[in-house]
Every structure is written in C-alpha cells, then in structure tokens.
Amino acid sequence: MDYILETLSGLLRDSGFYSITYKNVIMIVVACGLLYLAIRKDYEPLLLIPIAFGMLLVNLFPGIMAKPIYDANGELVSAGGLLHYFYLGDEFGIWPSLIFLGVGAMTDFGPLIANPSSFLLGAAAQFGIFAAYFGAILLGFEDGAAAAISIIGGADGPTSIFLASKLSPGLMGPIAVAAYSYMSLVPIIQPPIMKLLTTKEERKIKMEQLRPVSKLEKILFPIVVTIIVVLILPTMAPLVGMLMLGNLFRECGVVRQLTDVASNALMYIVVILLGTSVGATTSAEAFLNISTLKIVVLGLIAFAFGTASGVIFGKIMCKVTGGKINPLIGSAGVSAVPMAARVSQKVGAEADPTNFLLMHAMGPNVAGVIGTAVVAGTFLAIFGA
After folding, report:
1. pTM of the complete model
2. CA-to-CA distance for 376 and 243, rounded, in angstroms?
3. Is 168's pLDDT higher than 90?
C-alpha cells in the first residue's frame, strides 16, 4: 500500500497540476482567447495560432523553454526545452530576417515606385514610434528599452523582435507578443480611427490609376534601396537586405524556384518557429507584471498614433493635390503588410462600393516597412548597439 501511495504521490509531483499557479491559469485563459480570435474570428490566424499555442505550452510546462544545463566538467546534464532552441532564432535575429525575405518575395513594390509620394505617407505613419518612445521614457524605461518598445508603433513584428534582441533582450517576449497581437488586430483598431479623422466625402475619393512600372524599374529598386539604406544604416543590413533580396527574387524572373520557396515553404516554416517561440516567452512569471502592462498600453497608443498621423498627413496631401489623394491610404503607412492596405480598401469600399484603394494603399504600406526598418536602424546607431 505504501508503494502505491508513494507512486501516486510521485505521479502527482511530476504532473502539471502540482506546479501550476493562478497566474499560469490566467495566461492559459489568455492563450485560449487568442486561439478563439484566430480560429473563430479569423484574425490573422497564421500569426495568432502559433503565438497562442506557444503561450499555452509554456504555461502548462515551463520546462519547454528551459536552457541546457551543464555540470562543473562541462558535461551536458539536461538538453533543455524544444522551444528554447526555436527561440535562439529570435535572439540571433535569424527568424526576423527570414520573415523579411519572404515578405519581399511576396510583395509588389510597383505601387510605391509608381507613386513615390507614398514614401511621405509611410514616413508620417512612423510618428507613432516616436510618440511611444517618449511615452516609454516618461514611464521610466531606459533609452534602449524605450526604443525597442516604440517599434511596436510601426506594427512590424520582425523589426520589433530584431531591435529588442539588440537593445533590450529581457523585454523581447512582451514586445514581440504586443507587436504581433496589434498586427493581428489591425482590422479592429484602425477603422474607428480612420472614420473619426475623415469625412464620408473624403473616404469616397477615387484615385487615378497608377502608371505602369517597367520591369527594369522593379529590378533596380531593391538594389538601389539596399545600397542607400545599408550605406547609411549598416546595422539594418540583415532586415533590409533580406527584404530586398526576396523582392529581387520576385522581380528578376530568373529564379522562380527561389521565389516560390521564400514566399511559401520557407516563410511558413519560419512563421511556425517564430510564432511558437515568441508565444513561449510569455510565462506567467515573465509576463504578468507592471512592465508588461506598460508595454501593451504603450504599443496600443503608438499604433493608434501611427494610424492617425498617416491619415492626417493623407488629408494634408488630399488638400495639396486638390482632392486627388484619398486620406484613407495614409493609415496603411504602418508596416502590417498587407493587412493595413486591406483595411484601407475595406473602409473606402464601405463609403463607396465602387472605390478600389488596395493598390494605392500598398504604396504607403511597403514604404512603412522600409520606414520602420530605417527608424530601428537609427535607434541602433544612436544607442551604439
């Protein structure tokens, strides 16, 4: 009988029930809520499902993120958890760079080339980053941490992870989860701000068809941008370089196999690795604290400011051009490609079902990707990383 009781006691100690806390339960509920949004509401399931499941796993079994343990002689005692090795790709900036490779291979920069003024809208939408930076400073974060937090305002998950890994590794988990969560919630957060700042007549504005862009222009664009950006901000070579390499694969027309791999198989594999490892950084002990709450709030404020500043600058351009620019496309200046551009299209179509803004919004959208990377590189240069 004692043997049976001892065995049962050992099984209980080894079970998750023995070590689970109320904080773990809270995080499990949050993870299930995110899974509901992804599956039932279809809020960017490619991002939310891996993130939420990583969150679920680490709060059920924290050891899945454990680091390897060595004894005094350097012999391996414990190999560590699976997701720890996934997370090393975030820590070393590998997964964000490969995500950018896939984004470049999937993205048509033609609308940006055809309408270079889109760069201004993309730049205007970065105001949210600086608003979050100064807000983070006021809330007591140090310069490097404040800079890493502020990139959430660009709604660019890979860049947020990349910058956090350089400037504030300890905050990478909350920053990454906040950034990807807000990217997923673009269809909820942006429309009320866009409608508040524009009139129905402005939302109905139809823009002229974009000029055709030659193949030579599309080939030269990634090469020229890489040269300029990397010469000015060498620290951003991993992100900008991979983004432009992926786009060069797409546009040159002679490496179709590489384009297919970068935009499909490789992209989806990396999303799984990055998403689950980002989610697994949200253990109850690391996530449920005041700093995390501040980061989540700052991220929301930054994203709202970025959306608003893009729309406001769009209104200015609308006035300057005599009504030729629909202000809604300014909201796409945040880096959430192509979700933000789709939201511009959706809100414009609600005002006038015959209005087609998607391609016009893609210009500011891809400009926002480049703009966020440039701002991140500027922060890296300023803080000496």
Report:
1. 0.88
2. 15
3. no
